[in-house]
């Protein structure tokens, strides 16, 4: 994963820039909304003020009409020289104003310096406080609505971005791992084939003493074993992916089977090279298992304990019961796994570190296969490590079964 860091940081920069632009855009939108609602409310307040002026006009006109009214000289009946119609009382005028302008109040003292005095100076016209308060409330309501809609938009879009970003990062990571896998498999295939070619040429072109022939034969067997293991793993992974990896479960006594698998693997890797220590409980433990598939699990874990630890190795395999389960733990004192990598070691193609600096050969499929097989046994597998350089432990948990009647 040599080019992983720059790609991810570029993605991050794009992501942050888009988020920033989005936040600015939404901030501007909120600002526009607030300004618009402010303008609307200002217009309503002006309309209210105008209604006060209209009320004043109406009242003044009615008073002027009374003042200028003259008795009709042509009317004889009830005509009284010089008598003027009586002015409407303040109460009557208040009622008339109230009827036409419900938001305007006739008050005896000014509430605000803008309140106009009635034409005869008997009272003042003021705006009622309720509509103004309602306008103020409406203004806050629209500010709150614009802000919450904007916040919701930002959160929704950012959430979408985060999901897309994560999906993209996953895809990219898988692509990179796949690319690394191809080069790793090519390398894994080429190395034993090249070595087999050299040994075959040596055997057929030179006359060698029997002892050296024997040594070459052992080395060739190791290469063939390595190829066989790789092809077997690849086939199993392909089966796991298509769902055709089938395990044939039958009651299995774990201790003798596990001892056999560990000892055979120790021999294959070079007798004693694992520094193997078996710690088995004396109690007989049984599980429904496919011995061949489960052997692949243990072989992969032991192969990793060998690959990721330096000489002299100390590998411990423990077998114990835990309530209704059986635990098989393969632990080593090798290079360990950093906490950030622990959750990913079971991912397909995942390998810790950088392809350019990585020293140990591998494909990143072993632990994926381990997990697939253990899951098909109804169990689970976990990795733990106290950190880099402090070794690792892999715990396989399987459902325990009672010893069969004829076991
Ligand atoms: P690989 O073919 O690379 O060994 P695995 O799937 O078996 O693939 O392991 C995935 C990665 O987990 C390895 O590349 C290695 O970085 C890490 N790992 C697995 N087992 C161990 C271990 N016992 N000690 C340290 N690291 C380990």
Describe the structure concisely for a colleague.
The chain is α+β, with helices and mostly antiparallel strands and 407 residues long. It has seven helices and nine strands; from the N terminus they run H-H-E-E-H-H-E-H-E-E-H-E-E-H-E-E. Strand 8 (380-385) and strand 9 (392-401) form a beta hairpin.
Q: Count up the helices.
A: 7
The helix content, as a percent range, equals 55-70%
- The backbone outline, from C-alpha atoms, is rod-shaped
Q: What is the terminal-to-terminal distance?
A: 50 Å
- Rounded to the nearest angstrom, the radius of gyration is 45 Å
- CATH topology annotation of the largest domain: Heat Shock Protein 90
Under the CATH scheme, the architecture of the largest domain is: 2-Layer Sandwich
Q: Can you put this structure into words, describing what you see?
A:
It comes from Candidatus Geothrix odensensis. One of its GO terms (molecular function) is phosphorelay sensor kinase activity. The chain has two domains: 1-61 and 90-176, no CATH class; 250-399, Heat Shock Protein 90 (2-Layer Sandwich), CATH 3.30.565. It has helices spanning 4-67, 90-100, 129-205, 210-242, 254-269, 291-307, 366-376; strands at residues 104-107, 124-127, 250-253, 276-280, 286-289, 315-322, 325-332, 380-385, 392-401. The strands form two sheets. Strands 3, 4, 5, 6, 7, 8 and 9 form a seven-stranded mixed β-sheet that branches. Strands 1-2 form a two-stranded antiparallel sheet. The chain has seven helices and nine strands, in the order ααββααβαββαββαββ. By secondary structure, the chain is of the alpha+beta class. Residues 300, 304-305, 307-308, 332, 334-337, 345, 350-352, 362-368, 392 line the site of adenosine-5'-diphosphate (ADP). Residues 300, 304-305, 307-308, 332, 334-337, 345, 350-352, 362-368, 392 line the site of adenosine-5'-diphosphate.
């Amino acid at each position: 994963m040599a080019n992983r860091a720059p790609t991810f940081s570029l993605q991050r920069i794009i992501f942050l820039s888009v988020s920033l632009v989005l936040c600015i855009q939404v901030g501007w939108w909120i600002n526009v909304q607030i300004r618009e609602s402010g303008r609307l409310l200002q217009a309503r307040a002006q309309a209210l003020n105008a209604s006060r002026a209209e009320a004043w006009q109406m009242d003044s006109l009615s008073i002027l009409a009374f003042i200028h009214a003259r008795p009709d000289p042509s009317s004889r009946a009830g005509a009284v020289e010089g008598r003027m119609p009586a002015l409407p009382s303040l109460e009557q005028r208040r009622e008339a104003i109230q009827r036409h302008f419900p938001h305007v109040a006739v008050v005896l003292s000014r509430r605000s310096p803008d309140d106009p005095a009635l034409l005869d100076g008997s009272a003042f016209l003021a705006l009622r406080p309720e509509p103004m308060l309602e306008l103020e409330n409406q203004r806050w309501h629209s500010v709150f609505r614009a802000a919450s809609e904007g916040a919701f938009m930002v959160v929704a879009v950012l959430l979408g971005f985060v999901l897309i970003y994560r999906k993209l990062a996953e895809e990219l990571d898988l692509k990179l791992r796949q690319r690394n896998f191809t080069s790793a498999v090519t390398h894994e295939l080429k190395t034993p084939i090249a070595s087999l070619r050299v040994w075959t040429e040596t055997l057929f072109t030179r006359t060698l003493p029997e002892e050296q022939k024997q040594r070459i034969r052992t080395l060739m067997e190791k290469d063939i074993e390595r190829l066989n293991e790789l092809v077997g793993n690849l086939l199993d992974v392909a089966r796991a992916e298509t769902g055709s990896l089938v395990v044939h479960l039958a009651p299995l006594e774990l201790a003798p089977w596990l001892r056999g698998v560990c000892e055979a693997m120790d021999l294959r890797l070079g007798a004693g090279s694992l520094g193997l220590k078996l710690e088995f409980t004396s109690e007989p433990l049984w599980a429904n298992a496919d011995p061949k598939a489960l052997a692949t699990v243990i072989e992969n874990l032991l192969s990793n304990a060998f690959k990721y630890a330096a000489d002299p190795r100390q590998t411990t395999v423990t077998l114990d019961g835990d309530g209704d389960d059986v635990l098989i733990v393969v632990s080593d004192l090798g290079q360990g796994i950093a906490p950030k990598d622990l959750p990913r070691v079971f991912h397909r193609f995942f390998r810790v570190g950088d392809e350019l600096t990585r020293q140990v050969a591998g494909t990143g499929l072993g632990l994926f296969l381990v997990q697939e097989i253990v899951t098909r046994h109804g169990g689970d597998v976990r990795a733990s490590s106290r950190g880099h350089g402090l070794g690792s432990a892999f715990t396989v948990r399987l459902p325990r079964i009672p010893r069969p009647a004829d076991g």
